[in-house]
Every structure is written in structure tokens, then in C-alpha cells.
Amino acid sequence: MNRIIRKFWGVALIVILLSTMFIGGAVPAANAATLWWSTLPTVYGPFISWQLAPGTNVSFVKVAPNGDIFAVDVATSTVYKSTNGGLAWAPSVPVIVTGAIVDLVVSPAYATDHTVFVLDSGAVNAQVLISVNGGVTFAVLGGTCAGIGTSMAVAPNYAAGIGEVMVGTTLVGAGAYGDVYIWYKNGVQNWVAQGIAADVTKVAYSPNYLIDSTRVAIASDAVAGTQIRTEVAAAVWDFNLLATTIDSTIMDVGTAPAIISSQIAFPSDFNASSVLARTCFVSINSATAVDNVYRMTAGAGPNILPATTTGVPMGPPTWAPTLVLRAASLVYTGTFAAGSLYYGDLAAPLVLYNTAPMGAQPTASWGLCIGGLTGAGPVYVALASDFATSAKVYAGTSGAESALSVSTTSGLFFAQAGLIDTAIATIDDFSAASATEYYMVTSSGATSSLWKSINSGAAWYRVLNFANALTGIVRLSPTYATDKTAYVSNVGNNAAATAIFITNNSGLSWTPRTSPVRIADIAVKDQYTAYVASAAAGSVTATANGGWTWQAIATTTFTGAINQIKVNAATGALLVGDVAGLVAISLDGNFSYFPLAAGVSVGNGAGVGPAVVAFDTNYAANKLIYAGDFGAGVAGIWRYWVGTSVDWGLFPIDGALDATPAAIVCAPDGTLYATDCSVASPTTGGVVRILHPEDPFALLTVAETVSATAFGDGLVAGALLTKLSVAVGSNVLFAVDTAAPIGIRVYTDTLAMGSAAPVPATPAAAAVLTTTAVSFTWAAVPGAWSYQVQYDAFADWRSGTTVASTNIGDTFSPVVGLAAGVGYNWRVRVWTPVVGPWSATNAFTTQMGIAGFNAPVLLSADNGIAYTGVSPAFQWQAIKAATGYEFQLSKSSDMSNPIVDLTGANALGPVNAYKYTGILANNTTYYFRVRAFTATSKTDWSGVVAFTTVSIPEASAPPIIITTQPQVTITIPPATTTNVVITQAANKEISPTYIWAIIIIGAVLVLAVIVLIVRTRRPV
Predict the structure, then answer these.
(1) Helix, strand or coil for residue 157?
(2) Residue 965: which pLDDT band, with cuts at 50, 70 and 90?
(3) HSE-up of 668 (CA within 13 Å, CB side)?
(4) For 987, phi and psi rounded to 5 degrees?
(5) Alpha-carbon distance values, 400 to 377, 465, 472, 491, 627 (Å)
(6) What is the 3-state secondary structure (H, E, C) of 610-676?
(7) Neighbours of 904 (CB within 10 A)
(8) pLDDT averaged over every residue in the chain
(9) How far lies 801's CA from each of 687, 749, 776, 835, in Å?
(10) First to last CA, the chain
(11) Which of 159, 201, 808, 966 is 20 to 30 A from 770 in CA distance terms?
């Protein structure tokens, strides 16, 4: 077979951009037209210009009223904005600061004024920078504020430059205090000191500022410790609204123990003007044992000094009695009676939530968010603007492997969405759970990441990050659609290759397990059953309870290490290929193995390896398996029927493979795929594709190699495809390209075995052709370049087959020289860019050769067509090669309701005459026709011929029968001797009346006989 070089592939995902930002495109739909490789567009190009460097922070995460998300990279003083839920981020022009960015606040009117503020701590004096273009550029707002900036707040009624902005500062040194500064207080466009005379670590406006006009600050000094101070309207800052002392031992930043930072969160119904609504939550960080989250309530009354301690501590959680709550962020949603408090830890990648803040034992209600967070603290938590309906929570982490994570489960499970500080080095593995849901493992230095997409690669989330100096793999349960089970691990002959992570909820959370052997590969049978092949020795161990316990003694299969293991879920059979090219199978659930022939080869030696293996899609029925290897000097794809074969059979692929196939997979529809690549010189490259690999005679099998050449299939020279995955229930094929730029390549195979074939049009089924020059037409297939037509007089397509190829499109004509009077089958398939499945078969017949016309010539109907008797005979001209004739006789000219229907099984044999043995009606017109046939064809019907039977004869008068009377002789006896004298009367004629009676009776009898005869002759 000639090498088929076509546009087979299309670049689906350039995963060098897998910092889990939004990818501006999608994998082609499962039923799209066949395309070559193409590159999906990306938001910011194939390289991540905004990707944070390893070790930086995702800080001060805030959500605008319209849903835009902001975060700060403090290392570069850059503000990032995302408009799609944290997947893609646009950087600002770096902010010019004298110290560091320590806070970010979004205008409450952001949807219209596009205003964002950042606080520069300053080296000596703090300053606020403002952006009025959505965070693209920033400028200094007014002058500076004395002291080191710590916190910033914007009044709830701020809009387009009108409204207050508040800043808190500190000063280092005993007795040296910071202050609260307010911009636009009383309409003054300047920073005005409030004269608190304390180190201020947090400022805030009451959420009901339009009602209570209350400003809040957490302030510390060397006398009263750390307190909550409030100011109403233009009054002085005092202690008269809240139980104000958080802890009297936590002093200013110049003393020990010193305040480091603090946080505050309000219920939405906080109202300082009501003593019943003055409740909030505060946390302090001083690196002492009193650090905690406190529930603060109403104060004792106006101008009354606070008690020593009035806040109610809310930690530690009962399930973590040693945990000290030091918050980097506190966020509250809802009212105090019914709401949720979210806590982001200052030092660890930890998020807690508390849904019962008014409980008698608030510590008991802390829950732990259990997924997706990597890096370190501080952790900055923010809620989506539509949290009430979306349940989205965002969390930014810091340090190595930090990221912006998102939860759609109210914070229970997180997945990392963007601003990943991980540089993707390699793609280790890829597996498709469906046509739209994918898993992928990448490596970066000593760590690996597992990514997941649920929208055809349009967006990626990191759902697992684990230490790894080796290669990571992901294996899905064959029933993933229902059990949501996946296994992730390192592989290699290394002590580190024993950790396994298992999910039973689609990657929301992961359970760590430890393998008893160093992992070479994992095969998952179902939610609880999995098999681990050893990378150190040829053995396999199993678990039946999700890795909780393992088979005590591993089953030995080879002396060398195993390269790959597969399990057939339907039968439980296990197939392993080792690093030396040998293949073995277990039919008893891993209790024993037996080798298959002498390696993956043609039978004359062991393979070179490493061997990759696969079960046929219908293995349970056909017991067919496949292997890829470089055996007996030939790299190839091999097949073997378990229980039947004595050696491996090599597929007739057009041209030798460059190297041992790195992967082989059988699609759900039965199409077989294998990679074809070589590190040294990929002269073929691409993927080997085999239709009908199950055909034992290889007569239907089509093997073709799609390679990277100048013909433009989209695979550049040097493409190294090392992994293959077929989406369950679809015809979408994925491959990992390890050559730079690394990526996932995808191809929607609309021409695979299970795909739609061309629909034959003409000749139509059962057509009888009057010519032997045939023109074929069919319905075109999207993406097809050319087609192949096949026609054959034999139904099995294996003898006398003629094949013709065409590049014309959806017609092919003419085929000249077909035999006359023969039935043919024909079908069509796509020929390029790749071979497709055959269409359904249409059967047609060429008319037989005849002497004269294209139907029998009628010779006679009882030697008279116009008038004939009531039991006619019919005759026609014999047809050459006919094996029989069909005859019809009817009273209708359209031959409906035939009186005689000698067709089909009742047809006549090879005779050219027919005698009707019944009696037709007199003086009636009848019609008849004839056609000839063979075992495979029929002629046209002859012309319909009419004839009329004779009329009924007239009835004759009764015959007169004359009977002659016999002569009467009278004998007179002799006279007596007595003389008697006789007197004789005159003679008289006698009338014969009895004779007339006899005549009349005879006539009646004759008429009765005639009537009986006529009645018994019933005309048709």
C-alpha cells in the first residue's frame, strides 16, 4: 500500500501555556469534519508573559462588584486582573512604590468608575495609588501619610472620585505611633490625620456606613494594648461602640509582645447605631499564644473604658487542638444569625470556614477546605460577587507552587485556576475521561502537577501537586463516568515511586496511598480494584480496596522490569509487556501468567522492547490482543489471538516504523492507533492507524502511516508522540508531543470504523441497468478529499473484485465492460485524507444479452391475438442465457390482480411457451406479458398484449323427431264349417296420440341435457 500522507492531525492544546489560564479555543467536536493539526488560539500567545516567577506570591485577592478579580504580585509590584474567574490574567504597568504593596481595594462603584486602589507601605511614609482604567495604570493619590502603611479601606458610597478613602499606619519604636488618615473627609481632597496616637493595623468602614456613619480601626498602644476604636461621623475616635479590648497584652509595634497584623470582618447587618447589631470578627497576629479569631460584641456603653478582655475566642478547632489561628484574611458572608466566616492562614496553605458563629461552642463548627491549595501562607480569601448563587470562593497563596485557587463548593474543595508560579517543563501523561473531560500530568523540577479540564481544554485547573523527581502518570477507571475514580503516581525504579494518590470524586479530593513495590505502571479495573506493575522486577501486585491493603506476595511474570500493564474490565484478564519486548497474560486475575510466543516478534527471536500492549475493544468475544515492539529487526504492530495463535502476526504497515511504538490503543469503535516516532530522525512520525484490525485474513485491514512531511498534515518534523488516549464514547484521539514546543495534539477521526460512511446513491438498490457503462454517485462526507469505489459480482468481496479510486468528489464514471445479465454489489469509502469505513452495499443488475429487443418477443396467443379460444396457448421468443421466465395474465391492462402470476418461486423453467389449462370467459379481453431471468438478473417485461376470447354461441331450436309406425298385420283364423254371414262396417282412420307424447317427452329430455351441459361449463 502506498504511504498515505494526508492532513490527519490538528494541534488542540499548546500546553506550554499550562499555567491553567484560559485557553482561547476548544477541542474540535466529536463529529466535526476530519481536519489536519491546527493550533488553537490563546489569550496571551503561546508563552505566558504574565506567569509569575517561582517563589512569588498571589496576594491581596479582591473581587469587584462586576466579578473581575484582582491580585498582586508583591515581588514585581504588579496588579493582575482576571475577567473570567481567575483563568486568564492581564498585568498592569508595574506600580512605582517606595516600599511594597500591602493592600488593594476595589471601588464599590467599579462597574462604572473602573477604580482600583493599592497601598504602598512606603519606606518612611505611606502613599495610595489609584487606577481609573481598571488596573492598567496607577498614579499617586494626593500626598503621603506619615508612617508605614498597613491597611486601606474605601467608603461604601465612594464613586468616581467622590467619597472617602482611609489608611492606617504604624511607626516602629516605643511611644512612636502611627495614625488613621482619611482622604476626602468633609470633602477635603487631602490626607487628614485623625490623631489616634496608636499603631493602626486595620481600618474599615461599617457595611451600613450610609446609616451609622461609622469608621473602625484596630489600634494598639503601650498602655491599653490592642483595641477596637470607632468614630461616628466627625466625632472623636473612642471605645464606646464595641467591646473594644481584644487583648491588653498585645502592645504597639515598638514593644514586646508587639502587634504584627490584624483582620476584621462584618456581618452584612452590622449597624453601630443599634446595640443589638454591633457584632464582628477580629483576628490578631503577635506570634504569641493569645493570637486567635475573636467574636466581638456590643460595648458597655458610651465613654466607658473597656474591660480587660471581652472578645470570645473562636479557636482552636476541636479537631486540631494545637492549631493557632493567625489570619492573613477574614471574610464574612451573610448575617450574623446565618452566615459563613472564612479564614485564610498567615503561614500555611490553609482555609477554614465556620458556618455557626453564634454557637455556644464556636470552635466546634470550623471546617477545613480539603483540596487544591499549594504553596504557603499568607492565604488571601475572597468571595465571588455572586457567591449566593455560584458558591465560588477564591484563595491566593504564596511561595513555591503558589497559585490562585477557586472553589465552586463554598470552599470545601479548591482547584488552582491561574497565576501559577510553576514553569511547565514536560508533559508526562494525558488521559481523556470523555470527549470533554481530560487529565494531564506535568513536571517542573522536583514537583509534578495534575491538571484537569472539563470543557474540552478551554480551561485547565490544577487539582493535585506532588513531589516528584521522576515521571508522573494518571490512570482512569474504565467506569470513570460512574465511579469517578483515578490513580496518580510517580513511576520508575526509585524509592520515590511508591506514592499513589486516589480520587473517587473526579479529582475534588485525593487520598494518599503507598504501593508495596516501585511503580512501573498501574492498571485500574474498577473503583476498588487496581494492579501495580513493578519497575524493579517482573511482578504485579493488586489491591481490592482502593490501596488500603495489597496482595501479600506479588505475582512474578518476568525476570526483568515491566514496562506496561493493561486490564480488560469485562474479563479481568491482565496483559503485561516488559522492557525487553516480552509479553505475558494472566487469565485468572493475577494469580498466574504465561508468556505469549517468543516475544513480540514474527517468531524467530525475542523482541527488543520495551513492549506496549492493548486489548481489542471486543476482546471478551474475539480474544484478540495487540503489542508494539521492535522485534526481529522490524519495528511493528503485532496481533495475537489468545488460545488460538502460536505466534505473533505482523500488520502489513506501509513502510517500517522508525522505532518501537511508544503507545498503542484500541478505540471504542475498534480502530487501532499506535505512535510512530524516533528520537534520532522521525522520517515517518505521526500515528499508525489500522481499520479492521480484527480481520483474521487481513483482507479488510487498512494500515496507514500519517507522517510529518511537506504535504502539510500539521505535524512538524521532529514531532515526538509518546502517549495516546481515546476519549471514551467518542472518536477523539489525543497524543502527547514531547518535542518543543510541548503540547497535546488532538484529532477527531470522522473516518474511523465507527464513523459515518458515504451513502450510496446510484445505481440504486435493485436497479436493472440497460447498459454496462455504470456511473456511481454517493452523498459526500465532510472532510473527504477523494473516494474509493468497489464493485463485485460476489457478495463476500473476496473474488473477482475490481477497485477503482477517484479524486473527482462524490461521483465516479463510467465503468465500462461489465458483464451482461449479471448482478453486482457496489460500495464506496473515503480514500483521502485517510481511509474511511465502507458504505452500505447497493446491488444492481446489468441486463442480459438477447436476440432482438431487451425483453421477450411474444409470438402467439393460440395463433391469434385478436380472437382466440377460451383455453389459449402462449409462446414467445427464447432469450439467450435465460434460466427461466415469469408470466402474468390479467383482465387489467396495468397487470393488477393477475389471474395467472407465475413469478418468483412459481416462475416457469427454461421454456418459451405456456398453455392455459383453465377456461376463460367468452367475449372478454385479457392481457399478458413475459420476462426472462437468470440467477442474478432479469430482463424488462415484454410489452403488454391484449386478446379477446370468442363470443358465446347462439342456442338452436329443439329438433323434431319423426318416428315411423311399424306395419300391423292382422291374421284371421280359418272359418269354421259353420257358415256365418258377417256384415262389415265401413273403414275408419285411427289417430296415433301416444306417438306425439313420446316426441314431446324426448324433446324435453334433450333440452334438459343441453342446459346441464351449459351450466357445468363456467366461463372465467
Answers:
(1) coil
(2) low
(3) 15
(4) -70, 145
(5) 10, 11, 19, 24, 42
(6) CCEEEECCCHHHHCEEEEEEEECCEEEEEEEECCCCCCCEECCCCCCCCCCCCCEEECCCCCEEEEC
(7) 8
(8) 80
(9) 30, 28, 16, 18
(10) 68
(11) 808
In the numeric block, the cell 363470443 is attached to 951
The sign of the CA dihedral 49, 54, 56, 58 is positive
Q: What kind of architecture, by CATH, is found in domain 858-949?
A: Sandwich (2.60)
Site of grid cell 347462439 = 954
Would you tell me how many other CB atoms lie within 10 Å of the CB of residue 604? 11
Which residue, among 304, 279, 272, has the nearest Cα to 294 in the 3D structure?
Answer: 279
> At 328, is the secondary structure helix, strand, or coil?
strand
pLDDT digits (tens, 9 = 90+) for 612-647: 899 999 999 999 999 887 555 566 788 899 999 888
**691-695: Cβ within 8 A, 24+ apart:** 691/752, 691/753, 691/835, 691/837, 692/753, 693/616, 693/624, 693/626, 693/639, 693/651, 693/666, 694/616, 694/618, 694/622, 694/624, 694/670
Grid coordinates belonging to 690: 489500522
- 354-367 pLDDT, tens digit each: 987 765 566 668 98
**Cα–Cα distance for residue pair 356/338, rounded to 1 Å:** 7
Length of the chain: 1020
Within 10 angstroms of residue 628's Cβ, the number of other Cβ atoms is 30
Range 809-821 burial, b when 16+ CB lie within 10 A, else e? ebebeebeebebb
Task: Considering only the C-alpha atoms of the chain, give the largest distance between any 2 of them, rounded to a whole number of Å.
Answer: 213
d(CA 804, CA 785): 15
Specify the fold of 759-846: Immunoglobulin-like (2.60.40)
The owner of cell 484500541 is: 666
Per-residue cell: 932: 426472462
784: amino acid identity, one letter: A
Q: What's the whole-model pTM score?
A: 0.76
> How many whole angstroms from its chain centre is CA 413?
24
- Map grid coordinates 508531543 to a residue: 737
Element (H, E) at 540: strand 538-543
Alpha-carbon distances, residue 434 vs 21, 449, 495, 616 (angstroms): 21, 20, 33, 19
Instruction: Please tell me the distance from the alpha carbon of residue 585 to that of residue 531, in angstroms, as a whole number.
Output: 13
What is the DSSP secondary structure assignment for residue 561, as one 8-state letter? -
What are the grid coordinates assigned to 599, written together? 516475544
Q: Are 550 and 541 in contact (CB under 8 A)?
A: yes
C-alpha to C-alpha distance for 328 and 308, rounded to whole angstroms: 25
